[in-house]
Design a protein that fits this description.
Growth Hormone, Chain: A
Length: 495
């Protein structure tokens, strides 16, 4: 399991070859050439980042249209699960067949998933479409970053980090605003349909880039058994976590079969991976104490983030009776906080020369903010401030975790280390969606969705939603607190 290795300067094509202009005297990519490259690969990255926040505000409306609230967690979980599986696969395929061509395939699957979602007549079809989206979405970020690694020399990339910051911040901030407005005034299906012209534009821009370097002799996707065990084990456990309490009792035969089967498949996976030289899971890295602890912290961080982003609109709509457009605006402070926390932590870590400090402080801030959300009565102004603090606290764990794992892994394992980070983030987000849904929907009674969707919903029902979400915020605070404790135990990682 490794990310696509960077080709050498002599082997790599550069954006200059796409427009007939040579590099500068030092063999560097010029600013104009980088912008042509970024305009092609930046849009797929933008769509991959914005996809979750864009759709989060639509969840209550989708639940109302289909009359199903309990299964909405799989709108996120299905996408994240298939995306996690495809991350290492796209790395291998990009090495072997060329990253640009592989990215075209990922974009095609992404489009197919959006078409199915836009036309879905039921929740089951919508979830299937989201799974197909994930099959493509797993490659949008991975391959886009790999293409930049192939076409831009490492010493130059630091000059262009600002463009990535702008892209991530735009996706996180604009996603909730656009999603909320569209759901309130146009309809949630438009969120999927609107991606199609963007995907067409991205495909056109990609077609103008050089073909890049294919390596037919590169290792293919050899660990098919590991991939199958990972999919089966993870899907079984996530289904059990998201279904227990409302599809079947926690203490029941179905619960025992699903949880037992999922754990058995994972045990089989780990045993199988130890026998391979190039396993799906890089077992040699997972034995490193630093990587273990940082990986767990990353799981806690992304699970809290996804749970807040995905379920806060449900709380606002059904508990506080707020419309979709206002719900979208309430997600903006969280998104701004995430980006602000990440950027600030990078600067501070660079000044103090240590990577460990900021994730500890950040997760601590998130723990306190989530605890206050659980204890204080609902107030939109207070929730906006606390949402911002939750984001500020979760932000440092993103870049900090990636740098610590890469540093602990060493230069010879950078690709595998990057894949560990991506998998930890994706699995953490999937767990946040599944466990958050199991907790919230398991505690909620069988509420009438139609009654909750209309203005003037029964006060008793709304109060019950508020009570359950306060419990959920408390559990999220416990998860963030556990992440803080883990971050404190990470051995010192200097820059």
């Amino acid at each position: 399991m490794s990310a696509a290795p960077e080709t050498s300067k002599q082997e790599s094509a550069t954006p200059a070859s796409a427009d007939g202009q040579g590099q500068d005297a030092g063999g560097n990519v010029t600013h104009a050439q980088f912008l042509r490259l970024f305009s092609a690969v930046g849009l797929p990255m933008f769509m991959a980042v914005a996809d979750q926040t864009l759709l989060a505000t639509a969840v209550p409306v989708i639940a109302g249209d289909f009359g199903q609230l309990h299964d909405t967690s799989w709108i996120a979980t299905a996408y994240l699960l298939t995306s996690a599986v495809m991350i290492p696969v796209y790395g291998r395929l990009g090495d072997r067949y060329g990253r640009r061509e592989t990215l075209f395939g990922a974009l095609a699957l992404f489009v197919l998933g959006h078409i199915i979602c836009a036309l879905s007549p039921s929740m089951a079809v919508l979830i299937m479409g989201r799974a197909i989206e994930g099959l493509g979405g797993g490659g949008l970020m991975t391959l886009s970053q790999a293409m930049i690694g192939e076409l831009v020399m490492p010493r130059q990339r630091i000059r262009f980090l600002g463009y990535f910051g702008i892209m991530f911040m735009s996706a996180n901030v604009l996603g909730p605003i656009i999603g909320g407005y569209a759901v309130a005034h146009i309809g949630w299906r438009w969120l999927f349909g609107a991606h199609l012209p963007l995907c067409a534009f991205a495909a056109w821009r990609l077609s103008l880039l050089p073909h890049g370097k294919a390596h037919p002799d590169a290792a293919g996707v050899s660990d098919l058994q590991g991939l199958a065990l990972f999919v089966a084990g993870t899907a079984t456990l996530l289904f059990a976590l998201s279904s227990a309490g409302h599809r079947f009792a926690w203490i029941s035969l179905w619960s025992a079969l699903l949880f037992g089967g999922g754990l058995a498949l994972w045990a089989w996976l780990l045993r199988h991976e130890r026998t391979l030289r190039a396993p799906f899971f890089p077992m040699e890295l997972l034995r490193n104490r630093t990587i273990q602890l940082v990986g767990i912290t990353t799981l806690c961080q992304t699970s809290c983030f996804l749970a807040v982003i995905f379920y806060l609109p449900v709380y606002l709509r059904f508990g506080l009776q707020i419309g979709a457009d206002q719900s979208g605006l309430m997600l903006v402070p969280v998104s701004i906080g995430i980006v602000s926390g990440a950027q600030t932590s990078i600067r501070i870590a660079g000044r103090i020369g240590r990577l460990n400090t900021m994730p500890v402080i950040g997760m601590g801030i998130s723990t306190v903010a989530l605890l206050l959300l659980a204890l204080l009565p609902p107030n939109l102004t207070v929730m906006a401030v606390l949402g911002f603090l939750v984001g500020v606290g979760l932000g440092p764990s993103g870049p900090g975790s990636q740098m610590m794992i890469q540093t602990a892994a060493g230069q010879s394992h950078l690709g595998a280390a990057s894949a560990v980070v991506m998998l930890a983030r994706t699995l953490g987000a999937a767990l946040g969606a599944a466990v958050g849904g199991a907790l919230i929907y398991g505690l909620l009674p069988d509420l009438n969705i139609a009654d909750l969707m209309r203005a003037g919903a029964p006060v008793q029902a709304s109060q019950e939603v508020i009570r359950v979400f306060h419990i959920a915020f408390f559990v999220m605070a416990c998860v963030a607190g556990y992440g803080t404790w883990n971050a404190r135990r990470v051995p010192m990682v200097p820059i």
